[in-house]
Amino acid sequence: MLLRNKISLGTAIHSKNEREANMASGPTPTPPTASSGMQNNVAAALSYITIVGIVFLLIEPYNKIRFVRFHAFQSVFFAVAWIAFWIVWMIISTIFAAVSHGASLFITGPLSLLLSLGFFVAWIILIVKAYGNQEFKLPIIGDLAAKQAGS
Long-range contacts for 80-86 (Cβ within 8 Å, ≥24 apart)? Predict the structure, then answer.
């Protein structure tokens, strides 16, 4: 009986070593290959984060892809237009406030909120359209972006 247990134990150890050897000598999984980057629609949608759009205009391969370049330029132009609009709007609001002794706040305050909401909705629409592989052009800015992107 003791001999039989010894043989059984020896066989178990031997079969365990064989399994480990077979596992080590079996085909090793190949590591995932390096991808060529993100898809164009994702890059175009991300370019509406203005800093990212500027980066995409500078780095390859995105600065070679017309679709991504268009959305990156439109993003930059949209941000510049937004900033320029707000500078002009603040000057106009300040003048109205000075003339009306602050009473214009009841008009310019809600109007400022509506304009902010309008710009935000336009920005979201641009992101969604870019993600949907659509080249959605804003009236003036879109033509400038298309020209810069090389259409």
Answer: 81/141, 82/119, 85/115, 85/119
Provide the token pair at 64: 């070679």
Domain-by-domain residue ranges, the chain?
A: 38-149
**Phi-psi region at 150: left, alpha or beta (left = phi > 0; alpha = psi -120 to 50):** left
**Rounded to whole angstroms, how far apart are CA atoms 138 and 76?**
12
Nearest-angstrom CA–CA distance, 90 and 101: 16
Cβ-proximal residues to 108 (8 Å cutoff; 6+ apart), any chain: 92, 93, 96, 97
**pLDDT average per 10 residues of sequence, the chain (151 residues):** 51 53 46 59 91 89 89 94 95 91 86 95 95 92 91 62
Tell whether pTM > 0.90.
no
15 vs 1, 8, 19, 22, 27, CA distance in Å? 21, 11, 6, 10, 20
Model pLDDT, residue 105: 84
pLDDT for position 33:
36
* HSE toward the beta carbon, residue 83, CA cutoff 13 A: 7
